[in-house]
Design a protein that fits this description.
Strand order of the largest sheet: 1-2
Structural class: mainly alpha
Number of strands: 2
Distance between the termini: 50 Å
Number of helices: 4
Shape: flat
Oligomer: single chain
Order of helices and strands: HHHHEE
Length: about 100
Amino acid sequence: MEDMITDETIAYAAELAKLELSEEERKAARQDMERMLAYIGKLNELDTEQIEPAVHLFQTENVFREDIVTNTDGCADLLANAPQQKGRSLVVPKTIS
């Protein structure tokens, strides 16, 4: 399990996450990922031969409901929860300049 995570893997993960990591942060991230993989590797040691697979909830009972189309305007309900409104619109703080 040792050295499964390369510096390139850390750089790639940081790039995907749009993170700029210092050298110390890269080392810490590499150690964290290696510890996670080692822990997951321990799960492979478990004897699951006698364990039945879990059954998904949807396979045991019908949890679906009939899809009923309603033509209601929920605007009044939505605006009732709004701290500020202007006509039939929500007023929100400006987030960009």
